[in-house]
Specification:
There is one protein chain. This protein has 309 residues and is α/β, with parallel strands linked by helices. The chain has 2 domains: 5-168, NAD(P)-binding Rossmann-like Domain (Rossmann fold), CATH 3.40.50; 174-297, N-(1-d-carboxylethyl)-l-norvaline Dehydrogenase, domain 2 (Orthogonal Bundle). It is built from 13 helices and 11 strands. Helix 8 (171-201) runs antiparallel to helix 9 (205-215), helix 8 crosses helix 10 and helix 8 (171-201) packs across helix 12.
Amino acid sequence: MTARIAFIGIGQMGQGITTNLVQHGIFSRPLTIYNRTKSKAEDHAARIGNCRVVDTVEEAVASSDIIWSCLQDQGAVQSVFDNALVHNIRGKLFVDSSTIGPESTNEIARRVIAAGGEFVAMPVMGEPKMAHKQTLTCIPCGKAESVDRIRPFLQGVICRNIVDLSGEEPGTALLLKLMGNVIILATMETVAEVNVFAEKCGLGVRNMNKLMTALFPNPPHAAYNDRMLSGDYHRTTPMVEVQMALALAEKVKWLAHSCGASIKIYDIACDHLETVLEHEGPRGDAIGIYGAVRMESGLSYKNDPEPLD
């Protein structure tokens, strides 16, 4: 008997994941979806088909074996689980792909397991565009038998890579996600600085792009380099809102401070995110770090893209 799946949270990442679940996953149709703004869920369901939209979290939980959530913040996650745990959840698997704190994740896992359910923390690495292309990296973490229940819906369905933390405490996945965020912001900062340096010293971004393409032909370097040089960093609709990036950065910096770790390049990148927030507002794109570095070096925030071929 195939699983019945509900998905809670139809943001940009959730849209990519659910589209691929419907197109490539093997489960009992339709996919049940719930979103706080129901019209958004209805529009998405109409686009991808094989979905039914429900009015409450309780409906989603009651009719499903696997309840998968991808929510914007700690408050939304807490609200969903408070509503879900009011009812009988025995035997149901909860998978959470939201980015919240490790301790909060462990507390939710304890509540779910105490009520007879199963829990897997599964943050993902990658931008929403990567979710649509099935190129995310998933970090499933929890009891091995619980991770095995969600495994058929990962590689080749919604993601390219799995960092398997089976058997670890669920919050470990969120710790690793925070480490991944350090890598991501440090990469953005490095690519931004080297391109600005090349422009300022007269080498030019065209020549710099040739070296970047030769040394780092694959994401994330290649993806960030392309978005910066093409001017996509000052797009109208952000890939990753700078406000959200800064909220996650606060978690990273708190953790680093509490354990005495030095992450100076990350601190510099965060300062540049603050510049993006000031210049573009909360819906500026995090990749606007490039614009911040440009301004710091006496250039305009927005570049004047040129063909690189």
